[in-house]
Amino acid sequence: MTTPADDTIAGQHLVIKGLHVAVEGQEILKGVDLTIGRGEVHALMGPNGSGKSTLGYAIMGHPSYEVTAGSIELVQADGSRLDVLAMEPDERARAGIFLAFQRPMSIPGVRVADFLRHAVTNVRNPDRKEGQELMPMREFRDELKKKMAELSMDPEFARRYVNDGFSGGEMKRAEILQLAMLRPKFAILDETDSGLDADAVRLASQSIAQIGSGGSPGGAEMGILIITHHEQLLEHNIPLRTHVMLGGRIVESGGPELAAELHKKGYERIRAAYPEAAAAEKAMEESRAEVTSA
Amino acid sequence: MTVATAAPATAFDRDALETLIVADSLPPWVADKRRAAYEACASLGLPDRRSEHWMRTDLRLFKPKAWGLRPRPAVVSPPVGLLAEAIAAGTTANETSADLPGQPTHPVAETSLGGRLVSLDGHVIREELDPGLARLGVVFGAAERVLAEHGPAIEPHWFSVIDARADWFATLHAAFHRASAILYVPAGVKVREPLSVLAAIGPGGVDTSHVLVVLGEGAEATLLTETAGGGDAAGPVGGFHCGGTEIVVGRGAFLRMVNLQNWNTGVWHFARQKAVVHQNGRLQWTLGALGSRLSQVAQDVALAGRNADAQVNGVMFTEGRQHLVYNTLQHHEAPSCKSDLLYKGALQDRSRLVWRGMIKVDKAAQKTDGYQRNDNLMLSAEARADSIPGLEIEADDVRCTHGATSGRVDAEQLFYAQARGLSADEAARLVVAGFFQQVFDRITIVPVREALARAIGSRIRRVS
After folding, report:
1. Which CATH class name applies to A4-293?
2. Is the pLDDT score of A17 beyond 70?
């Protein structure tokens, strides 16, 4: 595994090529190409049901999301490539990939701190086997306290059970806390702003920017793919590239001005410009409606 | 542990009984009770599956004639037991989850034992009691010795709590009990260190031990009992346990009692256990069950005096083709008492867990607060759990409720944990540990709940 010495950021990429993904036999992603460099911020936008979350799950390795074609690779600083699709989800996490869930799962009876201590230990020691020592409690506790203070979180939060009885906003803040503790190389943030009020979104936006920069102003530690319907999360995370997904494909990419346009005007121009993708979107919607009514 | 192969066994017959009575050389009333129980046993057959308590227990493969008392084995290295080991090992406070932001650290008090009794195949092989406790009048150790030395004090309680005539197993136990344990704590004496009783068997061994606990007025104690063994390096060989536990919690007394059933998965386990809690007395009673091929356990609590309080905790983990059956009774005999039962079970493979619980409230027991709950977590599609709660209420001013849940480990939970870097196995163990946390939070003996958590964690395989 990588050590800090050869862990230069330049040259590290998450590379997705021709990705097709099916769920329960139905194709959702129909050939996605996307390259994110470490230190870059990308925004992924698109109407509901266009396949944005599916891309996040596929990158993380959800067992229900079957990759039928294409590749996902991690390009290392030395140019070597890791085949992400060959890895279990936990191996992907240990390789530095993080997904902030749109709907995080609750794990009753497991405290946030205990859960995070396992996660942090594994991600920082990718070759750790189960049963081997966890990160020393004192060291972990001090770091957790510090991160929670930075995120203006009540220390009591660490004692609660993972996402159990959390409000929508608390879940999202817990996801950001995990992001801060795990310091991944590449993070996919799936609607991390939903369920938050305006102040909380502003705080989340600042926090993500700070984590992404590795704590130093102007720094660039993390490659981030932000899936969002709102503008505020991008306020402190100006995207280098904005990608628009429609009907399971990325149909258009641009700069930050594209995100601003879509926020103001919606997706009518996109649908008109890419009739084939718009038709695919409509077909997917209809088959979903059938499944729901059945 | 290593033991020599057991010599051929005797049967549970009249000759064996008379030989046992001679070997005991105990007061005549003890022998009389044995003989009366034997006569009852000889007139009974195995329990009928048509009876409500036994209808979910399959005894067809149990052969009563295959078992009998075992001769004293040659002990090479004495068994230790999971609970006693946990106490001796202690816990490092800075490695527990108590030491987290927002939580004051708890001092861990249970780091040494006040006494211990160890038996193997029905023979006492180790007996110790802190001399300081003995000076305070605490009586603890092998029943054969205690009955000889303190007969008159023990006689009113010995086989007075459980129904020794309830069925064939109860009568067999009352006739052939051996290597039994007695704890007697005089009024006002508070014992800080836990006391430990381990009844072990070798491969194919037999244990008929009895446990009697009597706490005088205002006394306090913690007793950890464990049954273990019955296999060797080659795997489960089998064995037979026919036991009984009697508990008397005096006025204003407080007992923390733990029974861990940790047999190998070849052992037949039959146990009848009952506690009587008197006025203002408190009982925290924890049952852990990990082993045996088949278990049939009756666990009764009688709240016999005003303001008595009983908390019953169950932690069960089953795997393979294990089949464990529990019949519990919370009997409110006096007014203003509280009973709170929580059984939690996790089931792996094709195992089966049955809980049939009853809260019975007598006419006199107004202001009763009774609760019973059973939650089961299925780790495989082939496992089966039955929860059968019941209420029988004769008083009119009571609050009695019950609940039962059965669920499966959620694949989405596992994926979430894996996405954070936990391996599939680690994720499953964490989810199961979380499931048990609610009952662990109630067990105030920290090393015990940690030992149970470790034992369960080590048994979980990949969730299917």
Report:
1. alpha beta
2. yes
